[in-house]
Amino acid sequence: MAISIRKNNLIYPYFVVSGKEKKEKINSFPGQFRFSVDCLLKDINELDSLGIDKVLLFGIADKKDEKASSAYAEDNIVGFAVREIKKQFPHITVFADVCLCAYTSDGDCHLKSHANTLKALSRMALRHAEAGADYVAPSAIARGQVKAIRKALDDAGYQKTRIMGYSAKFASNFYGPFRNAAKSAPKSGDRSKYQLDYNDAKSALKKIREDVKEGADIVMVKPALSYLDIIRDAKRKIRAPLAAYSVSGEYVMLKYGAARGLWDEKKAVFEITSAIKRAGADYIITYYAKDIARWLRE
Ligand code: PBG
Known about the structure:
By secondary structure, the chain is an alpha/beta fold. The protein has ten helices and ten strands. An eight-stranded parallel beta barrel has the order 1-4-5-6-7-8-9-10, surrounded by seven helices. Strand 6, helix 4 and strand 7 (162-169) form a beta-alpha-beta unit. 50% of the residues are buried. Bound molecules: ligand PBG.
């Protein structure tokens, strides 16, 4: 069987907490952890030796408030993590997520006013850029977020910091384990006000086009498995490099099925990840990245 997935297609997500010697298990998210930076570096050492060279970082807030102020505080946890990673592993490409849901008291990705949301997201992106992130990845789905962040980065002299837009992000049922990890579940309601309806293929393409126009260097479709048609459409119609996020719910489905003996984990992961690549993803963000690298060696 020819395997088409390459290690350099893969991006591995990490959850970062403050403190030391922490590698916390996450409810309903087997095999994934919240790491303090010292432990994160050890894990990245392993990732590095497996030949994966791209990581996506999510911060977990110690303190939440109405302004999401720890998202863009000078001593924010993601900035600290990025600096330490870049010191030890300069060849690793670091993507840093830009969203407020882990930092707001109500778990909303946005602040009360649109203008303040864009300001907060821009300040957060700027913090990541100062720390040395290669990419910032806005996932709040606020209108004009890519444009605002691009301008803030350029104005501050960070023309080289690139942007991966969460361009077509659907209001999905499959984000549950992630929200446990990031402690970012909305306190009330869902995110259907700003995330796309799963039937709405048309808006997905429109959003991706808008992100390219606003200055995104990589565009993304999220989730992956239920949206292979969107990935294929985007690949055919849009020239920017394309990422697909195989989200936490997709990962746990595979994990739980394998744990029940319903399928062979490795074979099932290769089948699904190959499908995401076949549909057109240049990059695949997956919690299975390390396992895939290990299995590719066998
Ligand atoms: C934040 C965000 C979410 C994910 C990544 N960034 C969840 C959400 O919209 O609540 C989900 C990723 C996953 O499930 O693996 N806005």
